[in-house]
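Session log. Operator J.P. requested a structure for one protein chain; no other inputs attached. Running the standard single-chain path with token output.
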Amino acid sequence: MVEDFTKKVVSIIKSIPEGKVVTYGQVAFMAGKPNGARQISWILNSMSEKESLPWHRVINSSGKISLPEGYGFEEQMYRLKGEGIEFDRNNRINLKKYLWL
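Structure written below.
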């Protein structure tokens, strides 16, 4: 059921600790839909404010922010850096160091 999946996704995202990140695919897998990464993006877009989700802690599987510059990229980077997460010169996060679970 879609509702159950959404509830699981919201719960997982709320559980991400400060200073850690997860990938869209990882959240989808944990919520029971291994191929549901795109749905995670939709849930974040539609529910982050309403559910007070730490949306900034969800990144792509390359360790990069998926939002384009000028459309949330800078805010997400600012929030992650504020939690002590470091980026390399290519704006990539070291997943071995910062990936949750």
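Operator note: The mean pLDDT is 96.
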